[in-house]
Fold this protein.
Amino acid sequence: MKLYTVNTGHFKLDGGAMFGVVPKSMWNKINPADENNMCSWAMRCLLIEEGNKLILIDNGMGNKQDEKFFGYYYLHGNDSLDNSLNKLGFSREDVTDVVLTHLHFDHCGGSIDYNEDRTKLSTAFKNAHYYINPKHWDWAVNPNPREKASFLKENIMPIKESGQMVELFEDSKIIEGLSFIEVNGHTEAMMLPLIQHAKGTLAFMADLIPSAGHLPMPYVMAYDTRPLLTLQEKETVLNRAVAENWTLFFEHDPLIECAQIERTEKGIRQKASFQLAEVFN
């Protein structure tokens, strides 16, 4: 099994929203905000190569949205989904499976593209199955007012219409060594991939722990629909990660790809950080 980081670009979100009840005087040391209180965040995805399978976990926000949309979220940087795949020697056509942890726009927007004259939407990965938890699908297509802006129909409905969608559960077996943990604090039935690799266990944190700065328990995003449940889920996952010596893969940390963690007097904290390729190559 080979694992690759796929960087799809950076975007900006309000720092206060990203760190919830934590005061700016504390979180601003972790990810300094600009003059508009916005912080830059990665959209870092994971590619798994195993046998004849090439599995992409999440795919960023894509580039099909209009100028007004990008005026809110400030897509920036030189990375893109296609450029990152090409640097690894792959293209979209090579991807056999797309796993979507959840359907917020910054995790699934690269799933769908417009044609050249922007009159028709279609799947960006023509040869792939798209794996989505059915409970989360129902949640996303019938959005609550609080999350509605994160669930964009143009990112979601063409997947169903394509016939490429497959239901994803904790015990789904796409390949040996890939399993899933369902968590419900950030949004309904978000799926965390857990990869058993020869070099150790890699846990894809999605939005349960979006960055290394979110390791302390109170650091919970204001975007979460059930923040107290997120606290419980963080505790459960982090305790297991320490006990089983997992490596955590951060989807949104602007600098840190991976970290190993340890138990300290202040709680579970980062022990070491590194690039994915330094260990899982």
Remarks:
- The longest strand covers residues 2-14.
- Residues 93 and 126 are 6 Å apart (CA to CA).
